[in-house]
Amino acid sequence: MDHNTFGDTPLSRCHFYRRVSDLPATVDPPHLGRIVMKADHVWALMLPADLGQSVKVRMQHHDWDTGPILSHPRSNRWTYLVRPDIPDDVRLFAEMFRLNVSVVRTGGTVALPSPADTGAQFRRWIEPPRCTFRPSGLVVVDAIRACSGPYRPVRRWAAHVCM
Questions:
Q1: Please, what's the b/e burial string for 53-83 (b: 16 or more CB within 10 A of its CB; e: otherwise)?
Q2: Are 79 and 110 in contact (CB under 8 A)?
Q3: CA 158 – CA 120 distance, rounded (Å)
Q4: Which pLDDT score is estimated for 150?
């Protein structure tokens, strides 16, 4: 399908990400139409797809909104876009590293799905952004922990669902 036929261009998609979802997206480089987001008021957790699927199921089981999740099929990874509330804690980063989870903090870059992406091997949304909601990074970390080993109590948090 030619997305441009319907007016979906990298620039229009980028505007949608900024306006509807408050994602600081830019088209970079313009001639390729790749869309990237510099982490600032939105961070990300990048993890293996199988673990990402388990985390999604766990969060949905508790009736928690997962927020936006994207897939990177070529690398078999998922990315959860989260609130920037993960503390700067070496032990936490070491624990996540052992689980093959990357924390994308302020200054990092996340590639977002673009209509310029061709084929199923590029980025795609598992849960597209529908509003400005992102789950707490700590809640997603707790779900990662719960899906990766011995049960640990899950942090309580106020649920929010996009309307």
A1: bbbbebbeeeebbbbbbbbbeeeebbbbbbb
A2: yes
A3: 35
A4: 61
CB neighbour list of residue 93: distance below 8 Å, 6 or more residues apart: 103
How many CB atoms sit inside 10 A of residue 104's CB?
Answer: 21
Q: What is the pTM of this model?
A: 0.87
Q: Give the separation between CA 14 and CA 34, rounded to whole angstroms.
A: 10
What span, in angstroms and rounded, lies between the C-alpha atoms of 129 and 139?
18
What tens digit of pLDDT does each residue of 35-50 get?
A: 999 999 999 999 999 9
- In the predicted structure, residue 162 carries a pLDDT above the cut 50: no
Cα–Cα nearest to 70, from 149, 118, 4, 128: 128
> Using CA atoms, how far apart are residues 109 and 92, in angstroms rounded to an integer?
20
